[in-house]
Amino acid sequence: MKIEINHVTRYSYLESVMDSVNELRLTPRTNYRQSCYHHEVSTEPSASLFTYEDYFGNRVHSFSINKPHKEMVIKTKAIVVTQDQSSIAKFGLPYKGQLELLQGDQLQNRYIEFLQPTSYTEINEDLLAYSAQYPVDEEGFYAWAMSLMSGINSDFIYDPDATNVNTQISDTLRLRRGVCQDYTHLMIAVCRSMGIPARYVSGYHFVGDLQGGSADFEQASHAWVEVHVPGTGWLGFDPTNNAEVDWRYVKLGHGRDYKDIVPVKGVYRGTAKQKLKVTVDVRLLEG
């Protein structure tokens, strides 16, 4: 499927600010499931862009605006062709073979970053108690990840007012509600508590045709989980929507948790009083 994404980030400041230094992680990746054919970035005020790849292979655009300004606008446009995840995962290695790979030094060393807890994915007694509800059995790790994804979706209530960008696992477990970031961090923490590599993915989710073909609804960036299924590789699972990743999902980047792939972050000199407005439009160009 060919998908077009227009993403506008607008910062408005009460007073003029200056010396603004920013990083963007808003470029769709090209991998086995998707290809980014076009991507453009513009800023207001205009700025020169410096591009590089970070440690995790995410494309980063950085720029500075030194002159005083009361508003900064970042616009990105991308065209991406996507497809469903490979169905080979359903017919992968038997459980014993998966377990041998998972416990081997080669896999442990290669994916150590995605096995260690972070401030967002802390492994504590409450997390371990929750994880115990989802033991791995002979069906293997793909079936287990699907079960965990469905379990989180049913165990928690989607509530955009319950949490914020700094919410951690202990808060999510206590509140039993949250947003995609919270669902994603929880599933990652459960995976890591069981020695299964898992990483945080940022991107977009096309839902236009699920809304009667209308684009008159609020869209936003999305987050989901990639789990490393031994013998198969990285596969995407979305506990927020209880869905295995398919053509609807456009991946921007991945990291250990949200902190590694913040779409827009920066610092500036001036007033702390600001307003942020993000507008995202995800359209299907060709089916």
From TrEMBL:
Gene3D superfamilies registered for this protein in UniProt: 3.10.620.30
Residues covered by the Transglutaminase-like domain: 172-241
InterPro entries, per database record: Bac_transglu_N, Papain-like_cys_pep_sf, Transglutaminase-like
Entries under SUPFAM superfamilies matching the protein: Cysteine proteinases (SSF54001)
A Pfam entry, by short name: Transglut_core
Protein name: Transglutaminase family protein
